[in-house]
Amino acid sequence: MSIIEAQAPLHEAHRDNHTHRDVNGGWLRPAVFGAMDGLVSNLALMTGVAGGAVSSGTVVITGLAGLAAGAFSMAAGEYTSVASQRELVQAELDVERRQLRKHPVDEMEELAALYVSRGVEPELAREVAMQLSKDPEQALEIHAREELGIDPDDLPSPMVAAFSSFGSFALGALLPVLPYLLGATALWPAVLLALVGLFACGALVARVTARGWLFSGMRQLVLGGAAAAVTYGLGMLFGAAL
Fold first, then answer.
1. 100 with 136: CB under 8 angstroms?
2. Confidence of residue 24 (pLDDT cuts 50, 70, 90)
3. pLDDT of 87 higher than 70
4. What CA–CA distance (Å, rounded) separates 126 from 115?
């Protein structure tokens, strides 16, 4: 009893510290991708237009149009992508459900063989598979996890992905437009704010992914700055040609 009592605080500490973040909720990837894409694409679009020596009003209209078009495009694309993925998973689950109904013994043996391949004793593996197969829904969940690598109760939501992508893209795309909306007439404040935003987004992503914040921030800043520089140069080239 004393050993158990001595180990109890360790078990509680392990339980409290052994928690994981939601990595399959369908919001993180579209939110991160949307914010980065909004910043880079709208900054590049605006610098490309500004490189053609147009008025500041034209640059603002371009930025706002890029924000609206990109946000709706990202949302529609994410919704379609996640919905298609979810439908594919549901179709595979229906196949597995039919197999469990038509060939329950074969499916049980298949599950037992899987446990044996992972080091479980054959007799114990068959007993575990038999116990798990008594409940059809539990058996479906186990087979889905083991064979398909998915959790039927934790599929990403198309609506969550779409709204996350829309909001994050719009927020990212707004940064390079904001200085103009506040009265700026030159391009450099928009570029400066967008580059700061790129670094901040990269650093923020590092907090989620456990990557170094300086490396992640600088990577986004360099990539976004390079895209803006290239499109600005192309804008100057095309502007001079026209």
1. yes
2. very low
3. yes
4. 8
